[in-house]
Amino acid sequence: MKWITMLLTIIVLKGCGDENNAPKFKIKVNQKTFVTGDSLQLSIKNQKNKPIDSIYFTARGSLVETPYVFPEDALLGDVPIQAVIYIEGEKIDVTTNVRLLNNKSPKLYNYSLVNEFPHDPEAYTQGLEFDGETLYESTGLKGKSSLRRVNYKTGAVEKKIDLDASYFGEGLTLINGKIVQLTWQASTGFIYDQEKMEMERSFNYDQSKEGWGLCNDGTQLYKSDGTAKIWTLDADSQKELSYIEATTNKTILSKINELEWVEGAIYANTYQAQKDVVVIINPANGAVDGIINFAGLRKKVEQLPNLDVLNGIAYHPGRKTFFVTGKNWSKLFEVTIEKK
Question: What is the pLDDT of residues 53-70, one digit of tens each?
Fold first, then answer.
C-alpha cells in the first residue's frame, strides 16, 4: 500500500508541475466594442514566450485575417473570437468575445389611434396574428393558458383551446395551414391544424431554453427566448438553425418578447420595459432600425389590479394598420405608425 501511495503522490506532483509549466495564451484585441466598418486587430499574449508553430483566428467560426474589417452586413451583437494555436504538435484553443454594435441610431416613430375594440381583460396576451379578418391569440399563466380564434371587432372568442394547467402559454404564428404555439419554461411548443384548431403534435426546443415570441416570413420561423437572441427555425421540423441579437448603436437589447413579421422586418416588444415601445429589427443582422413609442395606450384601458405590460402586436395587411393590446387589457387598439 505504501508503494501505491508514493506512486500516486509522484503522479499528482508531476501533473501539477506540468500544468504550471504549460504555456498560457490570451487573445489581445485593439478594443472591445466595434461598429461595422471598424478594424479588428488580433494578436496573442504569450506569457511563457513559447515558440508558436502556427496560429489562425476565427470570428463566429469563420476564418479571418488580422486586421479584419467588420463588413456592413455583419451579424451584430456579441462576436465569439477564437484563436487556434499549434505549439510542439499540440493544439490549443483560446476564446474571447467582442461586441459589434449598429453604426446607425434607430429611427423614432409615433402612432395615430384609428379604432378601439373590446378585448377580454382575462386574457394574459402573449401572441397575436391575423389571417384575413380573423384574429388568433395565445394567452398565458398556468391554469389560464389558451389558444383562441377571436372576432376582433366585437372581442368575442369564437373558439378556445385550453392548455394543460402545467403549461404557461406564449407566442404564436400561422404558417402553411398550421398554428405554432410556444410555451414558456417547458421547452415545448405545439402544432395545431389551423382550420380545425386541433392539436396535432408537440416539439422540443434546442439551444433556446424558453419560449417567448414567434413570427414567420412565410418560409422560416423566428423565435425569441427572453434574451437578446431571436432564433431562426425550420418551419417543418422547428429545428433551430441560427440566431440574431437585437442590437442598437449603444447596446444589445434583452427580454425580446412578442414578435410580428411586417414587410421584411421583425417588430418586437421588450418585456417589462420602462416604456411601452416596440422595436423594428432587421432579420438579416439584428440591427434595431426603429423604435415605436406607444405611450398613452395603457391609460385608455380599464385600470384593473392585474393590469400588466403592453404585449401583443398584429399587422393587418388589408387595412395596413397595426393592432396592439397588452396583458389583461380591456381594449384592442388599431393604429397607424408614422415617423417622428
Answer: 899 999 999 999 999 999
